[in-house]
Amino acid sequence: MKKGVTFVELMVVIGVLVILFAISVPGFTFFQKGSNLDNDAEKIVNVLRLAQSKTLASEGSGQYGVYFQASDQYTLFKGADYASRDVSYDRVYNVSSEVEIYNGSAEFVFERITGFVNSPGSVSLRLISEPSKTKTIYIEGSGHSSLSPPSLPSGSKVEDSRHMHFDYTRVIDTATEEIVLNVEATVQNILIADNISSGQFFWEGEVDGQLLKIHTHRLNNPDTQLCIHRDRRFNNKALSVSISGDASGAVADYSADGSVVLIESIYVSSAEKQ
Known about the structure:
Elements: H1 7-56, E1 64-70, E2 73-78, E3 91-94, E4 99-102, E5 107-109, E6 121-127, E7 134-139, E8 145-146, E9 163-168, E10 178-183, E11 186-191, E12 196-197, E13 200-207, E14 210-218, E15 224-229, E16 239-243, E17 252-254, E18 261-262, E19 268-273
Antiparallel strand pairs: 1-2, 1-5, 2-3, 4-6, 6-7, 7-8, 9-15, 9-19, 10-11, 10-16, 12-13, 13-14, 14-15, 16-17, 17-18
């Protein structure tokens, strides 16, 4: 005689299903939020390109731009600027509820005939629940908008604080010490040991909307040459770079516009603009 499923067995199966569901929901939710961040970034790129296209086509015999007026909203408008625009042409867009706009230039207006933008810059998005998850949209002077930072053309390097070399005389304990980045209220610690390749340190990333690259040309051989790349086109906040084992002070302190570099560490023997 066949035996049916008992109540206890049924409850066990239901319990297992409930547990599996509870485990999978957070992962799915995070995936969905990340997808919304990607989609919102792509949408902003498309709206910027639409504004440029309308301008080049002289649609309505005018020029168009995009204005980011809030953390969750932006507007495609017709006019030389947002303040004097023709409001009848406004098209308002919202980002997802899990995403916010931050650290972005307020207004991008495209020029007729050329399609150039009035003020190149960038706009950044991040997840509200996890601010370290970000996306940045770059708007070049040519009017091109994308999610990839523009590269400098060959021979256009500017010798200033965008790229500096620091000769550092103290021996660094690469197994335990960290590069410490302080961008206003945000601090990020980068373990040197996790970012060594072929005997040199290399790290590139974003901290609070700031795009940075730090690497070495020499590492304890016998001293260290630390290289900091901070392009003023994409960085507009004060920055402090230090090494965790150095109690004497920061290797470099940058002002918000990057024009001033202060050195506190007694182990920095020289600093050269590249």
